[in-house]
Design a protein that fits this description.
Layout: H1 3-17, E1 26-31, H2 41-48, H3 51-54, E2 57-62, H4 70-75, E3 81-85, H5 86-94, E4 99-106, E5 111-115, E6 132-134, H6 143-150, E7 157-159, H7 165-169, E8 174-178, H8 182-190, E9 195-198, E10 208-214, H9 215-220, H10 222-241, H11 245-254, H12 260-272, H13 280-284, H14 291-303
Parallel strand pairs: 1-2, 1-3, 6-7, 6-8
Antiparallel strand pairs: 3-10, 4-10, 5-8, 5-9
Length: 334
Amino acid sequence: MNLENLRKVVVVIIITIFPTKLISSDKVVLSTNWLAQAEHGGFYQALAEGIYEKYDIQVSIRQGGPGINTKALLVAGKVDFNIGGSAGALNFVNNDIPFKAVAAIFQKDPQVLISHPNQGNDTLQDFTNKTILISKYNMVTFWPFLRSKFGFKDDQVKPYNFSLQPFLEDPKSIQQGYLTSEPFSIKAQAGFDPVVNLLADYGYMPYATTIETSNEKITNNPDLVQRFVDASIEGWYSYLYGNPKPANDLIKKDNNEMTDNLLKYAISEIKRRGIVMTGDSVSSGIGSMSHKRWKEFYDLMREQGLLPDDLDYTDAYTLQFVNKKKWVGFENKF
């Protein structure tokens, strides 16, 4: 056997024994919707635990944050996948932007309204005609729902500037917040547990922490999309039901203001309040979506005049990559 033939035999043997080592992995970039935090934990877990690698993907996570328009990065092709929500996906359709949601990690949006204890502001029904601090962005997301369901008026609103000080100084104050953030900070700074009303528990039900990508990628490379979705879902099971430390270490590396105590609190609230595991995700696995849920949220937006009557809301999402029976009970593996 000459040297060239020997070389060919060796190559065949190596490929046979180590096939995956010689196949180049797909490289993708995921952009998050804020600085690294527990709300991104499953994605970081998939990275830290080698789950993305198991699915032959090399993933880089690009943090969002103040002043960063991650949807613009997605549309410009600077990132391959983005963390979004129902409203953003519907706005893609409304503006003829060819992107959509392919999975929904959060079945409940973690948006909350926060009030002081022992002030008679214990439920959303108590907030009628009372001043509420709301950001400009949320005036077109959950405020129309509150206005429609509870009869809230726009003149109740004062701008929320993302500082807790006005809330802490006024016991009668009510403000927006995120389930996994502001309540923890209030307890840490002021020493009391605020009253926390999760809007999802009152019927505000958009999906959150969705995975968005381009229609082009869905059409031309569905295998990559499926592998990315599957690996991310597995990462979320591992993060919530296994040991979250590998992801938390990466999160703290990317965001040096993050603490172990906040991460522990956030994971606890995500699980206790059924942010990820509730409804469809129990019967169809993490990441699941349904036509019914999308239609209900579109109808809410349409009734408030935020979306046109003739919008084809089904272009905002695809169920192609989720609702797989293999994920049902997957948490029992940890």
